[in-house]
Amino acid sequence: ASPCPGPGLGCPPLRNVSGAQYVGSGYTKAVYRVRLPGGAAVALKAVDFSGHDLGSCVREFGARRGCYRLAAHKLLKEMVLLERLRHPNVLQLYGYCYQDSEDIPDTLTTITELGAPVEMIQLLQTSWEDRFRICLSLGRLLHHLAHSPLGSVTLLDFRPRQFVLVDGELKVTDLDDARVEETPCASSTDCILEFPARNFTLPCSAQGWCEGMNEKRNLYNAYRFFFTYLLPHSAPSSLRPLLDSIVNATGELTWGVDETLSQLEKVLHLFKSGQYLQNSSASSSAEYQRLPDSTIPREDYRCWPSYHHGSCLLSVFNLAEAVDVCESHAQCRAFVLTNQTTWTGRKLVFFKTGWSQVVPDPNKITYVRTSG
Ligand SMILES: Nc1ncnc2c1ncn2[C@@H]1O[C@H](COP(=O)(O)OP(=O)(O)OP(=O)(O)O)[C@@H](O)[C@H]1O
After folding, report:
1. Is the pTM of this model over 0.90?
2. Is the CB of 161 under 6 A from ligand 1?
3. Which ranges carry the Protein kinase domain (predicted)?
4. ipTM score of complex
């Protein structure tokens, strides 16, 4: 709800931040969540003075300032890349500040959009629609990286922890290990893409570069860390063949990033337009009575994967799908259509065990099962 900070933030707003909270750290950098004077929450990233990178350099060379500069180079590189690679699935850079800190002059702090770390276990418990959003975000990001103004960018360190979620969208945050140069080669034996579970040999182009190696490295990583877990599991059954083909083709690297994205966009279209429902059994003998401007305050049951803990809140394309869902749940006797929608525009619906108490609510419509 807080206003978004404008671009080009510098040092002044950092002097009056409030509620600083440690978010996380890696090898080199530490991240803090702070509130700016205007109320917006942002992430501040700086070299971690107690981090592994700085610590091991100081132990080896005993040169604190020099070691700081070496580590800060990674943060600087990341900042430049965030700026040059601007995209909805690249974390937004709001600004930066150079200031003296401890005994080191001109330490760098970057100010970016705040995200939430990607927790795989948590993602596996969310709806297919939300998991698909993450895979589509990733597909769009990889397409952007493959066709970026800098050339085809590959993420050498590609793990879920390099990404964060911002309002359900996946965004890359850690870009210090990004590389643009393709691998030079004399023959295809120089073009081996190695992963822990398998290797791929790519062609060596006439110009002496391993063809598509950067984008394929990203793609296989997307497959092994994200697609294989998030795409097929509990998807609408009519979309399964298409989703399986995306998982298989990325796992075998038979498609490039362009084809992968176009297939992901096709899934989005089929899902958003309701075409995936074509073969579903909309023909139910049950009848439902419509009670406009009303809701059922209690009589909840739990279902999976509900958007709400303790009640059954699911998204549907239309009324027919809501009826189908209610018919498929043994406890369901009624449902309440809300005016809230998901990121694809689907309506959120509460499913209920009964309708002994119906109360007025101008933003909802109740449907009660009357026969069948
Ligand atoms: N904008 C952000 N919002 C919320 N959390 C973030 C943000 N940026 C980074 N993080 C979290 O902070 C952690 C450390 O950040 P980052 O990955 O940039 O540091 P690093 O030292 O480069 O780590 P690594 O050792 O993985 O390379 C990340 O794992 C991520 O979970």
Report:
1. yes
2. yes
3. 17-291
4. 0.96
